[in-house]
Amino acid sequence: MRKTTFNIDTYIAPGEAFHFARKELAKKFPEAAHDHDFFEVFLIESGQTAHWINQTTQVLDAGQLAFIRPNDVHAFRADRAKGCQIINVMFRAETAMHLTSRYSETIAGRFFDRTGALPDLHTLGPKRFVRAVAVAEQLQTADRSLALIEEFLLVLINRVAHPSSRVVDTTPRWFAEACSAALSPDVFRQGGAGLIETAGRSHEHVCRTCKAITGYTPSEYVNRIRISHAAQLLRSSETSLQEVIESCGFDNISYFYRLFRNQMGGTPKAYRLAHQRDPFQQGRD
Question: How far is CA 258 from CA 19, 110, 115, 267, in A?
Answer without folding.
Answer: 50, 32, 38, 9
